[in-house]
Amino acid sequence: MTPNVHPRDALFEPGAATPPRLPVVDHYCGVEARMRKSLALQAELGPVFDVTLDAEDGAPVGGEAEHALLIAELATSAANRFGRVGARVHPWRHAAFEADVDTLVARAGRRLAYLMIPKPEGADDVDRAAAAIDAACHRHGVPRLPLQVLIETHGALREVFRIAAHPRIESLSFGLMDFVSAHGGAIPKAAMALPGQFEHPLVVRAKLEIAAAAHAFGKVPSHGVVTEFRDTARLADATRRAAREFGYTRMWSIHPDQIRPIINAFAPAADEVAEAAELLLAAQAAQWAPTAFRDRLHDRASYRYFWAVLERAERTGRLPADARSAFFPAPVG
After folding, report:
1. pLDDT (tens digit, 9 = 90+) per residue, 116-132?
2. Are 255 and 203 contacting, i.e. CB atoms less than 8 angstroms apart?
């Protein structure tokens, strides 16, 4: 009997650019009490969201070194149960960048899931920052860390496809607030709020460029902040718009109350998950040949779509047991 072929092997060419399987929420926190609370919530909910400990905006002026040490301590503590804790360092051009990187890599490099590079002025800044981080990893005998980039300057947006093509980058995030501020008042403050951030043409253009670049090179596009964290209905609507209209597969959270609504909004509907699981199990049994299903003919093109549905269901904790055992078995050992 021919063994079942996994969708990743059957539906994608060897070496095809496929995005890493990142949780749908990237939760940012920089104050010690909130960092500890966020790690406790992750321990409760499981690895359905990442925690990014902020060494940039979270650090008090003059206290950058101490803050980096605190982040390293938290990342290596028992509170980091799932290995899904990352850190945002200072920008490459900032005086604290090298110290941030050296401290975090030396003390927590084996426990950090990624480093976020903020405010590059263009692709050259990303190249230099990535090279410096890789050199620190080599110096301290640590495997190279996955890297993410925050697109929030004119230069980074202009060169976003070059940045997305960088082999060391796994995700691109949109820095809404800094992007709007970089226009010197030409974009009104309403574009930093809802619904303005989905309507102003310059902000919409930036979001679409970032998402398109990420998808072109198999990277994860991560939508930026929604500041109206108390209004969960508006937050959920914004998350659905980011996913369905702008193509984002991940989103920032800046308050613990935002995490569950974002996960729920990114999760595919139960009937869509059930359909995807049933179809892909049938397709696998047919060795991925064209298959008639619910009076429609499907082949590998549509199988790839439904596989993306199952991956999103897995990342949001909505996967049926039969699909989990078939396609996402627990690691051995």
Report:
1. 999 999 999 999 999 99
2. no
